[in-house]
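Quick one before lunch.
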Amino acid sequence: MKSFSKAYQRIGTENAFAVGPEIAARIKEGYDVTKLNIGEPSANIADTATEAAIKSFQNHETHYMPSGGTESLRIAISEYLKSTRGVAYHPDEIIMSPGAKGVIAGTMMILVDPGDEVIYPTPSYPIYESIASYIGAKLMPIEVKEEKGFRYDINDLKKAVSKKTKLLVINSPANPTGGVLEESDYIEIAKLAKKYDFYILADEIYSRLAYGKGVRMVIHKGNKLPVTHSILNQPGMAQRTILMDGFSKIYAMTGLRLGFAASKMKKFMADFLTFAINYWACLPAPCMAGAEAVLGKDQKDAQNEVKLYEEKRDVAVKMLNDIEGIKCHKPNGAFYLFPNVTGVCKRLKLKDSEALRKYLLTFDAKGKRGVAVLSRQHFGKKLTGEKEEYIRISFAGPKKDLVEGIRRIKEAVEK
Ligand code: PLP
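Model of the pyridoxal-5'-phosphate complex:
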């Protein structure tokens, strides 16, 4: 038979999903697995969102909807972006996508030709590398460094950018490290973007999962909210940036697939609408009604979750740093920990963090217990010369699972 598309053979995947069946198989074999692998809030969605979605169904809103999203939702998002980013987007400058993820493929397919240089952080959310590779872009990963709180060194970025740079992907707060870019980073990025005339994809899906110093306080619906700094706060940057955000993380709406792109670039938004029409046509009205409901209500519940994340982060970091051979940086954003496990890998004579992940999943064969985490290998290709090993632990789930999971890691690596 004839060969499949060469481009498609280059596409990657998101191993957070790919390891799901492996975990399910162990559970089927009788293992009790504590799951710290998924970046998925365990909180339920707000009752007002459920009620709005049910009402939408009852009103028979089950037909095709406008491809960009309902106007009322886009107005609500526009108000939200004014409060949180300080940028006034017209509702037509906002387009819904089925999860924020869809914005990555859309942006790269619209902007990037084969051979164009795309710069993105590594380790990072693997879909940037996957889609850029599929398109045939020249991949330009820049390392985020543990000693810089998992930000990159701006000098590395300066070395990587050139006239050939088409797109810079920023993800702050970051998956898998929890790293948060600082205002000074954004000032430098803005200078480079102007000098070399590149576009920016700002993945700010975790912008409200912000802790500690360096956050900005904003007011939305009468509530004070901490948010991280954004490239959009830099003069002229809204004109060359595609903002990617959504409802999955802060509003615990992962399965409802509610993301959006916002940009001041008219031609880009016209092209993105065409992309939406080609790929998904529209989002379901009941989901959009739910999204509108959470933006319209006070933000107390969501902020309460953020407080709980911060508490869980503190407990988990302390527990991890008490384990021999583990060193865990305390992140200022998102709901992930990225402990350095180089010492553990050495002591247990494991090749790398992927081998450690596999070991942890079934560490207690007799008692049939395990703990699920992800490894460095799940977040983009390792750079040559990268020596340190890391695993990713999510603290998005219940505290008792987090505590039990880390206890198991301790038992597994110290026994
Ligand atoms: N961007 C980052 C950095 C993420 O970690 C995720 C989800 O894990 C996404 C985007 C995708 O979000 P969504 O579920 O809304 O597609």
